[in-house]
Design brief:
With about 250 residues, this protein is α/β, with parallel strands linked by helices. It has helices at about 20-35, 45-55, 65-70, 95-125, 145-165, 185, 190-195, 200-210, 220-230, and strands at about 15, 35-40, 55-60, 80, 125-130, 170-175, 240-245. It folds into two domains: about 1-180 and about 220-245, Rossmann fold, CATH 3.40.50.720; about 180-215, no CATH class. A seven-stranded parallel beta sheet has the order 3-2-1-4-5-6-7, sandwiched between helices. It binds nicotinamide-adenine-dinucleotide.
């Protein structure tokens, strides 16, 4: 295959949030393998080991702290807004502080990071913003009010970034996975089992993958491959859009 079909990111710098685990870690690995210098940001100091494994740079930060966000590098060519968490409860029992915490991490932090890196991207006339949304950025599920709200907001932020960045060579897109095999998903099985009165194994097929035509969890590396593709020169015309990797969920 010609080299033109590969994402060659030599000389580019990338910042991936939530890179200690799951999808973020897979994205950091894929971008590093393509030649980018990768900054890995996470609240979990396991990010140091993750960074060491790919010759990257670790930043242990709580992204809900606006001042901590200011410590992250601004000279970034590829920003992957990925950090997130889930909380499952019906709205009338949903803790308000958890609702605002999810918005802080999954909406305000991406806004602050985009705001921080854009001036340098504009100066260089090239940039890629990839926002890790979800099928829940396009569809709702019960008991996930904060998460669905945050992902829908991220979709809006991504589109505005695309419109403003277009004349500067900056694209912005969302990636929308269904259920991916990561701690975020395995960690919610118990809560889902209690909400739905099911065994944990039944939760995967009957609850999580109920609306997916493909009854198999997605692997983090498959999501990272999409992020890598969006980060390449060849994806210059792909902007302001959302790419479902959802096993047919949104087709139904
Ligand atoms: P994960 O739990 O494996 O990783 C999330 C990472 O975010 C963790 O390393 C965690 O330490 C970090 N993080 C949490 N709070 C933070 C904070 N305050 N500051 C900095 N870092 C923080 O989860 P994942 O499944 O890899 O999810 C990554 C992203 O993908 C999330 O935005 C999630 O909503 C999205 N997503 C996941 C799935 C899925 O099925 N796993 C599906 C669709 C979208």
């Amino acid at each position: 295959m010609s080299g033109a079909y590969h994402s060659d990111l030599a000389g580019k710098s990338a910042l991936v949030t939530g890179a200690a685990s799951g999808i973020g870690l897979a994205c950091a690995e894929a971008l590093a393998e393509a030649g980018a210098k990768v900054h890995l940001a996470d609240i979990d100091d396991a990010v140091e080991k993750a960074a060491a494994g790919i010759n990257g740079i670790a930043h242990v930060v709580d992204l809900t702290d606006a001042q901590a966000v200011e410590t992250l590098p601004a000279e970034i060519d590829i920003l992957v807004n990925n950090a997130g968490f889930q909380h499952i409860a019906p709205i009338h029992e949903f803790p308000p502080e958890t609702f605002t915490g999810i918005q802080a991490l999954m909406v305000t932090a991406p806004f602050l990071l985009i705001r921080r890196v854009l001036p340098n991207m504009y100066e260089r006339g090239w940039g890629r913003v990839v926002n890790m949304s979800s099928v829940h950025g396009l569809r709702a599920s019960p008991f996930k009010s904060a998460y669905v709200t945050a992902k829908h907001a991220l979709e809006g932020l991504s589109k505005v970034t695309a419109l403003e960045g277009a004349e500067h060579g900056v694209t912005s897109n969302c990636v929308n996975p269904g259920y991916v095999r990561t701690p975020l998903v395995t960690g919610q099985l118990q809560a889902q089992a209690e909400e739905h009165g099911l065994e944990r194994d039944a939760v995967i097929e009957q609850v999580l993958l109920r609306r997916s035509a493909i009854k198999r969890l997605i692997e983090p590396a498959d999501v990272a491959a999409c992020v890598l593709w969006l980060s390449g020169d060849h994806a210059a015309h792909v902007t302001g859009t959302s790419i479902p990797l959802d096993g047919g969920w949104t087709a139904a």
